[in-house]
C-alpha cells in the first residue's frame, strides 16, 4: 500500500534526523579526543602566557631595583658593586633597563676618568639601530661632547644636523655644539643666527640660552631680547 504524502514527508524528516545523529556520533568518535586535547592545550598555553607575563613583571621590577641600587652605589663610591650590577643589567629583557644600564655605565666610566670606555659606551648605543631613537640621540649628544675637540668642525655639524633644529629636545646642546663648530669653520654669520635661534627658544635650558645671547652678540646678532627672565 502506498504511503500517504504527509506520511512520506515525515518519514524523510525522520531519516534525515537519524543521519545527522549518526554523523555527529561518528564525528565525535573520530575527532572527540582531538577536540578535547586541543582545548587542554589551549588552556595550558593561556596558563603559560599568564605565568610568563607575571614573571616578566617581577623580573622588570627586580631589574629596576638593581639599577636604582647601582646608582646609589655610584653616589657612595662603591666601584666594584656598580660594575657588577651594571654588567648584569646590560642584557636585561626590558629595553629601558638595558639601555639605561649601558648609559649609566658610560657615565660612570667618565666619572672614573676612563674616557675611552665612556666614549665606546655612548658610541655603541648611538649606533645601535635596535635601540629607540630618543636613547640614541642622547648617546649621540654625549658622544659628541666627549670627543668634540678631536673632531673636524664639519663632522660635528653633519652628525648633529638632525638634532640641532628648533623643536628637537636636544636643540640646546646639539645647537650650541653645532654653532661653535660653524664658528671654528669660519662661518660666523651662520653661527650667529643659530646662537640667536637657541637664545629665543624657551624650551632650551636657561643656562644655554644665556650663553647663546652672549655668543650671538659677539658675532653681531642682537639677541638680548631673548635673555631669560630671572
Write the layout of secondary structure elements.
Elements: H1 5-76, H2 79-89, H3 95-111, H4 115-126, H5 133-147, H6 153-160, H7 171-184, H8 188-199, H9 206-218
Q: Could you explain how this protein is built, in words?
A:
With 230 residues, this protein is mainly α. The protein folds into two domains: 42-150; 153-230. 76% of the residues lie in helices and 0% in strands. The chain is built from nine helices and no strands. The longest helix has 72 residues, at 5-76. The chain is globular, with a radius of gyration of 34 Å. The model is unreliable at 31-44 and 48-52 (pLDDT under 50).
Quick one: overall form? globular
- N-C termini distance: 114 Å
User: Counting H and I runs of at least 4 residues, what is the number of helices?
Assistant: 9
pLDDT averaged over residues = 74
The biggest beta sheet reads: none
Radius of gyration: 34 Å
Element pattern in H and E: HHHHHHHHH
**From the helix content, strand content and strand pairing, which structural class follows?**
mainly alpha
- Number of separate domains: 2
Helix content: over 70%
Strand content: under 5%
Beta strands, count: 0
Poorly predicted runs: 31-44, 48-52
